[in-house]
Amino acid sequence: MTSAATVANDPQTAFDLGARLSRTPAPASIVIFGASGDLSHRKLMPALYNLALQQLLPSEMNIIGMSRSAWSDDQFREEVRQAVATHGAHDVLDADIWDAFARRLHYLSASFDNPGAYNDLRGALAHLNRSTGGLGNRLFYLATAPEFFPVIAEQLGGAGLASEDDDTFSRIVIEKPFGENLASARTLNERVGAVFGERQTYRIDHYLGKETVQNLLVLRFGNAIFEPIWNRRYVDHVQITVAEDLGVENRGGYYDQSGALRDIVQNHIFQVLSLVAMEPPARFDSRSVHDEKVKVLRAIPEITADNIHESAVRGQYRAGFIAGQPVVGYRAEHGVAPDSNTETFVAMRLTVDNWRWAGTPFYLRTGKRMPRRATEVAIQFKPAPHLPFAHTVVESTEPNLLILRIQPDEGTSLRFSAKVPGPQVDIRNVSMDFQYGSSFLKPTAEAYERLLLDALLGDSTLFARWDEVERGWEIVDELLHLWDSTPIAASNYAAGTWGPTEADALIRRDGREWRRL
Ligand code: BG6
Predict the structure, then answer these.
(1) Is 211 in the pocket of ligand 1 (CB under 6 A)?
(2) What are the start-end ranges of the E strands in 218-263?
(3) Domains plus CATH for the chain?
(4) Angle at 464 between CA 458 and CA 466, to 5 degrees
(5) Atom number of ligand 1 nearest to Cα 268
(6) Nearest ligand 1 atom, CA 447
(7) Which of 278, 276, 272 is nearest to 294 (CA)?
């Protein structure tokens, strides 16, 4: 039998969803590029502190922040302290843990395209290794603007920091967006790939770090009752929703170049879709899981000018109300062009053309300024084939529905028919509910904690492999071209509504409805 210790030493083997959090990675230096940015402040630093709090970072670990801000180590430490206090899981920091954590924080002010900065970095890494007894392992995290991704990778290569030997690793974690279309993603991948091998490259999709997304795999493959009905014979259709009540906040400049299709569908929704639709992998190792996921994406037919109207709808919000408060329309947001053609809502109808799913549509939707924040996967089963309740009031029942709530209110519900108590047969739909909060009595871990730890452990299962990213771009690329050449039906949904009427028409054409959330 494989012992926990053996599994821990074999990063490619392990995918024991819960137990792995008890593992501690080997000492390494983590270099965060873009350390003064928003992602570092809101997510990465709080996640690293939380790992330290759980004793999951060895004491020889060093964290080097790099960005253009002219900070000293102490200024960086103060910045991180505020980030952790504001965005971390605990308002009050543990004084001992924080002191030990702060001692590991270092800062280098640098222009990312300056080779001298990488010589300084190499010197700093060597010095820290000597002084802390580190092993020379390096994890580079690129949390910068995307134009710097290839530049940083190449500079790291030029400084000799990408090479590995039998005893040390050098890995690069790349944030989204991984390209802005198929061609630019391929170029980025080639440039990074010329320096870091695929095995060294970790493409982040933070949805894969969400506990509830991982639970999808446990639900499907850790139970005997779901898999036999998880197919076209029993499933009528699947709906995947990623709805946000927020607008573009302070990211108008980025978002206006991106839009909902690139921002959410090409990555987060396609990742969730491939986990929902994939075949059971023989083993839960990185390669087996990625192999099955990419087969799903390859089975999705491309969108063309001929089928675009049945396949995709886009929208852009106009002024409206969120929770009773007035909010401006997209084109009036800071950083957004007043005549912007960028979509803030997408609805799609896709098929997965293989034996398991042929004829079962997958409806996807995502939008900013929806009435509420809700991310879920809904598996709608086919109706009962025959109702034997003759001479009763029952003429039909609602089909069964399995809802996987990814956020908020993380959990799973099964809707099924039950008899209303009384002398006659009357049937209502009821819910069987599992909620993370009340079942486990502890908060679910932040996605970035899990993903940082996995990158340190060398487990890429919960990262996107290049062929998945490429296939995602292939599917949306034609759509992007078609949309680029036609103006958007401006302001076609009010903030605080569920998107344009065309989205309803997309699903009603098949005689179905979007779920009311
Ligand atoms: C990011 C997008 O990847 O995901 C944002 O760039 C979006 O626009 C965010 O708001 C949603 O993430 P979450 O974890 O809040 O669902």
Answers:
(1) no
(2) 235-243
(3) 4-203 (3.40.50.720), 210-385+465-508 (3.30.360.10)
(4) 105
(5) 3
(6) 14
(7) 278
CA distance 56 to 22: 7
Beta bridge partners of 432: 414
Catalytic-labelled residue, pool 41, 206, 268, 290: 268
Give residue 130's pLDDT.
87
| Ligand 1 pocket, residue 244 CB under 6 Å | yes
Task: State pLDDT tens for residues 234-251.
Answer: 999 999 999 999 999 989
Protein residue closest via CA to atom 4 of ligand 1: 264
Cα of first residue to Cα of last residue in the chain, in angstroms, is 46
Please state the rounded mean pLDDT for residues 289-297.
Answer: 98
Mutate to test the pocket of ligand 1, among 87, 203, 210, 264 (most ligand atoms within 8 A of CB): 264
> With bands split at pLDDT 50, 70 and 90, how would you rate the model's confidence at 490?
low
In 3D space, the residue among 366, 22, 327 whose CA is nearest the CA of residue 207 turns out to be 366
| pLDDT in the model for residue 22 | 54
- Tens digit of pLDDT for each residue in 410-432? 999 999 999 989 888 888 899 99
Instruction: Tell the residue nearest (CA) to atom 10 of ligand 1.
Output: 244
Q: How far is CA 72 from CA 75, 236, 496, in A?
A: 5, 59, 44
3-class DSSP assignment, residue 381? strand
Q: Report pLDDT digits (tens) over 180-229.
A: 999 999 999 999 999 999 999 999 999 999 989 999 999 999 999 999 99
Ligand 1 binding pocket includes 236 (Cβ within 6 Å): no
Q: Is 446 touching ligand 1 by the criterion CB < 6 Å?
A: no
Pocket test for ligand 1, best of 44, 175, 214, 244 (most atoms within 8 A of CB): 244
Respond yes or no: is residue 268 known to be catalytic.
Answer: yes
State the number of CA atoms in the 13 A half-sphere of 10 facing the CB.
Answer: 14
Per-residue pLDDT of 427-438, as tens digits, reads 889 999 999 888
pLDDT digit string (tens) for 142-168? 999 999 999 999 999 999 999 999 889
- Select from 206, 245, 366, 409 the residue to mutate for testing ligand 1; criterion: most ligand atoms less than 8 Å from CB: 206
CB of 263 closer than 6 A to ligand 1?
yes
Tokens of 89: 């899981």
Find all residues with CB under 8 Å of 284, minimum gap 6, and list them.
15, 16, 217, 461
Which residues neighbour 151 within 8 Å (Cβ) at sequence distance 6 or greater? Answer: 112, 113
